[in-house]
Specification:
Blueprint lengths: L1 H19 L5 E5 L6 H19 L2 E4 L5 H9 L5 E4 L1 H11 L2 E6 L2 E2 L1 E6 L14 E4 L5 H7 L10 E4 L3 H9 L5 E5 H7 L9 E6 L3 E2 L2 E4 L5 H12 L1 H6 L1 H7 L5 E3 L65
Helix pairs in contact: 2-8
Length: 319
C-alpha cells in the first residue's frame, strides 16, 4: 500500500512539474496516450514544430502520460490543439468551446465479426457474450456498446491490444465476436482471408473521422493560419505519420462544429464524461462531408495581422 501511495504522489508531482514548464505564450498540442512518449514525439512533435514555424507562435507537443492525466487536463481545458476521435471532439465543442478545424477525410465505420458457422445473425444475438475489442473509450468499442441502451444487455468486452489480435482471439474461441474498423477489415480481407472464416453481424453508421480541434485561446486569425498550414503540402508532410496510422494515408479536409454535433453521447458511460440523463439516447444522423483537399475559406474572417502571444490571464493554469 505504501509503495502504491508513493507512486501516486510521484505521478502527481511529475504532472505538475511537466505542466509548469510551459509559459503563458506556449500553445500545447497533444493526443490521447495511445503510444509511448518516444513514439508520441516522433508522430506529433513535427506537427508542433511546423505550426511554430509557419505561425510565428510557440507550439509544443506534450505527451499526456496516461488516460487519467489526459482526461483531467482535457476537462480542465489545459490543451490548445488536440488530435483525437469524434466523441472527444464533440464533448469539447459542447463543454469547453473547442472548434474543430481540420480532420482526416472519409468516415469511421465499425463492424463486428463472428465465426462463419456461428448461429448469430445480428448484434442482438451477442447480448451477454464476450466481444474482443480495444478498451473504452476507444470509438470502435463505444459504437458497439451504444447499440445496447440497457446496460444489463451489453456484451462483455475482452480487451485486446489491437484489432488484428482481437480477430485472431475470436477465431481461437476466446470471444464470440470481434470488432474491426472497416479499413482494417479491408486490409485484412485480401483474397477473402476474413470472409472465408468469419461473417459480419453488425455495421455501424458512418461518423466523421478523427481530427484536430483548438481551444478558445486560439484567436480567429491564428485559427486561420493553422487551417491553411495543415491543409498545405508541407502540412501534409508534417502530419504524414499520424495520417498513415489513423487515416489510412487519406488527405486532410476542413471541418466545423456542426459536423461533430451529438457524438459526445458515446461517452455517456465513461467516467469523467457523463452527460445528463435526458441526453443519453444517441440519435445522430451525420451528413456525409464533402471530401476536398484544397483550402476552403474558414468560417472566421481572414486577417493579415499575426496573432499576438497570449498573456498570463488568457492562459489556463498549470496542472
Amino acid at each position: 500500500m505504501k509503495h502504491l501511495l508513493t507512486k501516486f504522489i510521484v505521478a502527481l508531482l511529475l504532472l505538475q512539474v511537466s505542466a509548469a514548464v510551459y509559459s503563458a505564450d506556449t500553445y500545447i498540442l497533444t493526443s490521447p496516450p495511445r503510444e509511448t512518449l518516444e513514439d508520441g514525439k516522433k508522430q506529433y512533435a513535427p506537427i508542433a514544430e511546423y505550426l511554430s514555424k509557419v505561425t510565428g507562435q510557440t507550439f509544443t507537443y506534450a505527451h499526456p502520460g496516461d488516460w487519467l492525466s489526459y482526461t483531467k487536463n482535457m476537462k480542465e481545458d489545459y490543451y490548445d490543439v488536440i488530435l483525437d476521435g469524434p466523441h472527444f471532439i464533440s464533448w469539447r465543442v459542447k463543454m469547453i468551446e473547442h472548434t474543430p478545424v481540420v480532420r482526416f477525410s472519409g468516415s469511421l465505420v465499425f463492424m463486428v465479426f463472428v465465426g462463419k458457422d456461428d448461429t448469430a445473425e445480428n448484434i442482438d444475438d451477442l447480448t451477454g457474450n464476450l466481444i474482443c475489442g480495444l478498451a473504452p473509450p476507444n470509438m470502435a468499442t463505444l459504437s458497439v456498446q451504444a447499440e445496447f441502451t440497457n446496460p444489463m444487455r451489453q456484451p462483455l468486452i475482452l480487451e485486446v491490444t489491437d484489432f488484428k489480435s482481437g480477430y485472431k482471439d475470436m477465431l481461437a474461441g476466446k470471444c464470440r465476436g470481434a470488432i474491426l474498423p472497416v479499413g482494417v477489415y479491408k486490409r485484412m480481407n485480401k483474397e477473402g482471408k476474413i470472409d472465408e472464416k468469419a461473417k459480419s453481424v453488425f455495421r455501424s453508421k458512418p461518423i466523421p473521422q478523427q481530427g484536430f480541434s483548438v481551444s478558445k485561446r486560439i484567436t480567429p486569425e491564428l485559427q486561420n493560419q493553422i487551417n491553411t498550414a495543415l491543409m498545405s503540402e508541407d502540412g501534409h508532410a508534417a502530419t504524414a505519420a499520424v495520417r498513415k496510422r489513423f487515416g489510412g494515408n487519406k488527405e486532410l479536409m476542413l471541418t466545423n462544429r456542426e459536423e461533430y454535433q451529438g457524438y459526445y453521447r458515446f461517452l455517456r458511460d465513461f467516467w469523467g464524461f457523463e452527460v445528463p440523463e435526458t441526453e443519453v439516447v444517441l440519435e445522430v444522423e451525420p451528413e456525409p462531408a464533402k471530401e476536398v483537399s484544397k483550402v476552403a475559406e474558414p468560417a472566421v474572417a481572414k486577417s493579415e495581422a499575426v496573432a499576438t502571444p497570449k498573456t498570463d490571464p488568457e492562459k489556463k493554469p498549470a496542472k
